[in-house]
Design brief:
Elements: H1 17-25, H2 33-53, H3 65-100, H4 107-148, H5 154-179, H6 185-199, H7 202-215
Helix pairs in contact: 2-3, 2-4, 2-5, 3-4, 4-5, 4-7, 5-6, 5-7
């Protein structure tokens, strides 16, 4: 069985922005689009949290304090989840890469290599799917935050929605590229259907939030 981790770098979430961008721009295959999608989603969640934090404790918004606190707890949970998914996406790449490096000199080795690759591809699909699910969560929270949050920061709620929807679609591409290599047709059909459900109507939600935000500027 293939094992990843020996050449796994330090945690990317602990790097500086400049370091992360330099490595993203380099010829190294990881970090790549999946971890970039998770980062974009985390940025969206962070901006949504910022709007909540700028609303909490403000007398002008006294009637929505409890709801904003609940929304803040949710956006912070999603931010933590997406930050962790940056690392998971990179880790599963290294695991898959190790599988592709397995020997294939004999028929037995070839069969073992194929089985290992197929197994890890399921995990490699699950990670960006989790990113997509989390981004849907961020996007959905942006509507009440834009409606009830501090109007002085409403543009940030709009940016959060744009990040979240873009990150959702970006994660979807990473799901699809992995599904293309998976031989289990039933699994592929289920995951495609789930992904289509996540994507359905989200571009419209993003546009609705954007129009709401513009109307408040």
């Amino acid at each position: 069985m293939c094992k990843g981790g020996n050449d796994m770098p330090e945690l990317y979430s602990q790097k500086t922005v400049a370091q992360f961008l330099d490595e993203l721009a380099s010829s190294a295959p990881a970090p790549g689009g999946g971890s970039g999608a998770a980062l974009a989603g985390a940025l969206g969640a962070a901006l949504a949290s910022m709007v909540c934090n700028l609303t909490v404790g403000k007398p002008k918004y006294a009637d929505v304090q409890e709801e904003i606190q609940r929304l803040l707890a949710q956006t912070e949970a999603l931010r933590a989840r997406l930050t962790n998914l940056i690392e998971q996406d990179i880790a599963v790449y290294y695991k898959l890469s190790a599988c592709y490096k397995m020997p294939r000199d004999t028929d037995e080795q070839k069969a073992a290599r194929t089985a290992a690759i197929q197994k890890v591809l399921l995990e490699a699909t699950a990670v960006p799917m989790s990113i997509a699910e989390a981004c849907v969560g961020v996007l959905q929270l942006c509507t009440p935050i834009a409606e009830k949050g501090n109007v002085g920061a409403v543009s940030d709620a709009g940016v959060a929605a744009l990040f979240a929807e873009a990150a959702l679609r970006s994660a979807a591409l990473n799901v699809l590229i992995n599904l293309a290599a998976i031989k289990d047709a039933d699994f592929v059909a289920r995951e495609r259907a789930h992904l289509e459900g996540l994507l359905a109507g989200k571009a419209e939600v993003k546009e609705q939030i954007y129009s709401l935000v513009v109307s408040k500027l």
